[in-house]
Amino acid sequence: MPDAEGSKPLRSTESPPSADPDPDTALRGRFTRRGFMRLVGGAGVVGGAAYLGVRAVGGSAPQTRTPGSDPGIGGAQSGSTPSLDEVAEAVVSGGPPKDGIPPIDEPRFVNAADAGFLTDDDVVFGLVRDRQSRAYPQLVLVWHEIVNDTFPSGPLTVTYCPLTGSTVAFSGTAPDGTAYTFGTSGDLVNSNLLMYDRQTDSRWPQILAQAITGDVEGAQLTEEPLVWTTWSRWRQAHPETEVLSTETGYLRDYGSDPYGSYTPLDGYYAPASRRLFPVLREDERFDPKEVVIGAKHGGAQLAVPKSLLRERGVAHASLEGERVVALYDHDVDDGRVFRAHLDGADLELERGDEAGIYRDATTGSLFDAEGQAVAGPLADGRLEAVVFYDVMWFAWYAFFPDTEVVT
Amino acid sequence: MSRLIEAAQAVPPLVRATLRARRYRRWVLLIAAGYVLVYLLAIQNLIITGRDLSRFVSIPSVQVSADWPSRWLEPIAAFYYEPIVAIRPINHVTFLVSPVNLAIGLLLAGLVGVSVSAALYARRLQGPACRTRGVGGVVAALPGFLTGFACCVPTVALALGAQFALAVVAVRSWFVPAAVVALLGSMLWTGSRLSAGRDATTPTPRPSSPAVSAPPRRDRATTTDAGR
User: Fold this and answer.
1) For A136-166, b where at least 16 C-beta lie within 10 A, e where not — what string?
2) Are A302 and A340 in contact (CB under 8 A)?
3) What are phi and psi of B197, to 5 degrees?
4) CB-CB neighbors (< 8 A) of A277 in chain B
5) Can you tell me the mean pLDDT for A289-297?
6) What is the mean predicted confidence (pLDDT) over A250-273?
7) What is the pLDDT, as a whole number, of residue A341?
8) Using one digit for the tens of pLDDT, what is the confidence trace for B2-59?
C-alpha cells in the first residue's frame, strides 16, 4: 500500500546533510566583501528606503542562501532535539520591549460584507469554533502577532509569527485557575515569536507551545489549528464568517507588510531568502522558507511540504506507531492532518473522483477534506484532527530536528 | 583640554551669530525641515505608498487613538513611540503622529540645521582655511534615520539583511543618543576650527568673543548676510 498517492513512499527523517559548523567559515561568511558592500549600500539606501517605504527595501529580491553563511548560535547543528534549557539559552532580543508589538486584547469583528479592506488574494487565517467561523487577516496580525480572543466556550489566543510563517491558536489554564492570555516578549528563539503569559510571566515559543522558563516551565498549551488561506477562498467556504477588523485600538499602516509579500511571493517570504536570526538546528533538504504542514501527535512531529500535498492530495505517515493522514483541502488551498482511524478501523485514504473528496480503500467510505465521512459505511463519522499548521521549514526543523518528513 | 574648552566657548557665539544672519537662519530652517521630513519617512511615521488607502479608511480623515492619554508614552522600541493620531489628507499619504517621535525628530533636526549652517557660516568668516563645510553635521545626523522599527525587526536590519540583524538590534537603542552626541561633537569641531583659524590670524585671542570679531572682509560678509 502506498504511503502517498502517486506511489512515492514516505521517507522517515534521515541524517540530514550537516550544516557547516566551522566557526572560521561562519566568520568568513559574515565579513565578506559582499557583506561590506551591503553595509555601504544599506547606508546609501536609508534615504531611499525612507521615501519608498521599508517594504521596498525589506521586500528586495530574495537572496540565494549560501550554506553555512547564516548566523548560528555556536554553529547550528543537525540532529538531536534541543532541550528546554538549550532553547531558553538561544533566546535573542528582536528589539522591541514587552508588548512593543501590541497584542489585540479587545478584538472587533465585522461581517464578510463589511470587510471591504480585504482583497480576494489577501491571506487570512481561518478558524471554526463553537460553530462560529472567524477570519484573522494577515495584514492585521503582521502588526500585532497576538489576538486574545473569546469564543462562547472560552478564551482562545490566536497567534501569528511573520518570521516563521506560522499561525496557531492556544488555550490553557494557569495555576490560579484563570485562562492564559498572552503578550509579546519582544524576544525571539529560532526566529520564532516568544510569547509571555500574563498570569505567570513565563516564556512560550509559539511553535513549541511549551513554557521554556518561568513558574510553569515545561507546561504545555492546547493547540488548535487554523487554516492558512485567502480571503476569497475562506469567504466562499464560510460566507457567514466574521472578520477581524482593522479597528484594533492602534494606529498602523495596515495593508503594508514590512517583510515582503505573499501575493506575489516576495521579500522575506520567498522560499530561498535568508532568515534574519540564528537557529539551533539547520537542514538543507528544502529551501529555508519552504512552507510545510507541520503536525504534532503523541510527542512526535511530521512535516509535509505544502506544494507536495497540493500535488498528491493525500499523504500517510506514522507517528510513534500511530498512522496519520494529511489531506489537501482544495477549497482553502491548505492541508489538514488526521489520525487515520475511525470506529476502530484503519483507514487507507486515496484521492476520490471529485476534488476534495477522499475514498477509503478498505471500506469504500468517502471523506471530505475536513475529515467528515460523507458516504459509505462510515458515513457521519468524523476523523480526529491532530495539531497541524503551516510553517516555514527552517523553523520547524530548528525546534523538531527529529521530525518525520514526507518527501 | 584647554583647546576643548576654547572650542566649547567658541560654539555659543558662533550659533548666535549664525542665527542672527538672515541667510544662514534660512539655511537652518531649510535643513531642519528637510531633516524632519526624511526622519519621519525613515521611521515610517510619514508613509507615502502606492496602495489604495480608501480600502481601510475614508479619505481625507483624521483618526485619534481612543486611549491616547495613556498610549502616547508607550514605547514600540527604544526612542520610538506609539502614534496617537493618523492623518490621511489624500489617498496614498499617511502621517502617523507620535508627539515623542516628533519631538525627537525636531531636536535632531534643530541640531543638524544649526550644526551645518554654523559650519558654513564659520567657513564664510574665515575662508577655506577653516576646513569645515558642514559635512560632519550631515554625517552625524545619519544614525537618527536608523531608528525605525517594523514589527519585531529594526527596519535597517531588513534593509541590510541577515548578517547584520543581531548587531543592529544590539546597537539600535544607541542610534538617537549617538546622533545627538555626534552632532554636538560636530559643532565642537567647527568651534575648534574657528579657534585655530583665529589663533593663526590673531596674536592675542579673546576666547569670549571669537566668531563675530572677524576681519573686515568677513564683517562685510556678515553685514551683507544680515541685511538680506
Assistant:
1) bbbbbbbbbbbbbbeeeeebbbbbbbbbbbb
2) no
3) -65, -40
4) 165-166
5) 96
6) 92
7) 93
8) 778 888 888 888 899 889 999 999 999 999 999 999 999 988 899 999 999 999 999 9
Q: Do B65 and A251 touch (CB under 8 A)?
A: yes
Mutate to test the interface with A, among B37, B38, B152 (most CBs of A within 10 A): B152
- Angstrom distance (rounded) from CA B97 to CA A98: 22
pLDDT value at residue A44: 38
pLDDT digits (tens, 9 = 90+) for A221-232: 999 999 999 999
Residue contact B158–A58, C-beta within 8 A: yes
Q: Do A276 and B170 touch (CB under 8 A)?
A: no
Q: Which of A47, A102, A251 has its CB closest to that of B38?
A: A47
Cell of B100: 515623542
Q: Which of B11, B58, B51, B176 shows the shortest CA–CA distance to A253?
A: B51
Chain B CB contacts of A101 under 8 Å are 76, 151-152
Q: What is the mean pLDDT of residues B136-151?
A: 61
User: Nearest C-alpha of chain B: how many angstroms from A231?
Assistant: 15
| Whether A42 and B47 lie within 8 Å, measured CB to CB | no
Residue of A nearest to B75 (CA): A100
DSSP run (H or E) holding B146 = none
Q: How far apart are CA B136 and CA B116, in angstroms?
A: 8
H or E segment at B95?
strand B93-97
Q: Which three cell numbers stand for residue A402?
A: 527529529
The amino acid occupying position A349 is L
Contacts of B176-182 spanning 24+ positions with Cβ under 8 A? B176/B78, B176/B79, B176/B104, B176/B108, B176/B143, B176/B144, B176/B147, B178/B143, B179/B108, B179/B140, B179/B141, B179/B142, B179/B143, B179/B144, B180/B107, B180/B108, B180/B111, B182/B136, B182/B139, B182/B140, B182/B141, B182/B143
Tell which residue, B164, B189, B44, B27, has the closest CA to residue B109.
B27
Judge whether B194 and B130 are in contact, CB under 8 Å: yes
- Within 8 A of A162 by CB-CB distance, chain B residues are 151-152
Residue B203 has pLDDT above 70, yes or no: no
- Dist. CA A141–CA B12, nearest whole Å: 50
C-alpha radius of gyration, chain A, whole number: 21
Contact between B169 and A255 using a beta-carbon 8 Å cutoff: no
3-state helix, strand, coil in chain B (%, to 5): 65, 10, 25
Is this structure's pTM higher than 0.90? no
- Residues from chain B that touch A116, judged by Cβ atoms under 8 A, are 55
Residue A94 Cα to chain centre, angstroms:
19
Residue A127 · residue A120 · CB < 8 Å: no
